[in-house]
Amino acid sequence: MNANLVTDAKFAFVIAERKEYKVGGGNEHIRQWTDFLGNVKMYSTPPEGTQKIHENVWLIPLSSGLPFLSQLIDWGGSSGVSIRILFLEEAPNWIKYPPDAKPADETKPS
After folding, report:
1. Total structural domains within the chain
2. Is residue 14 part of a domain?
3. CA–CA separation, 9 vs 11, rounded Å?
């Protein structure tokens, strides 16, 4: 673990984790998940530079994104949704697989 995580971290890779469905457990976990996603969509605007990777995954620059990160943690806590955070010193170098694949909108015929 990096001893200087607090001072060296520049990004937070955040995953909101949906609870696993249990047979006979009712629909409470679905309501909690829906409430969490609804709060994120309705009441927040991710700061500039944030990459929304999926509806529940973000790469947040800490220089401008601490209020947004705090909101995610707060909504997760009030909705029963676990928030996992990986602090990074640098933005990740994403790889594309397959490397020569074109984005979906470029592969459509004109």
Report:
1. 1
2. yes
3. 6
Residue 43, C-beta contacts closer than 8 angstroms, at least 6 positions apart: 71
Q: How far apart are CA 30 and CA 80, in angstroms?
A: 11
Give the span between the Cα atoms of 95 and 1, in whole angstroms. 25
Q: Provide the phi-psi class of 23: left if phi over 0, else alpha when psi is between -120 and 50, else beta.
A: beta
Q: Is residue 99 part of a domain?
A: no
Q: For position 43, which CATH number holds?
A: 3.30.70
pLDDT digits (tens, 9 = 90+) for 8-63: 899 999 999 987 666 666 677 788 899 999 999 998 889 999 999 999 999 999 99
Sequence letter at residue 80: G
> Residue 10 is part of which domain span?
5-90
Does 103 map to a domain?
Answer: no
Predicted pLDDT of residue 63: 94
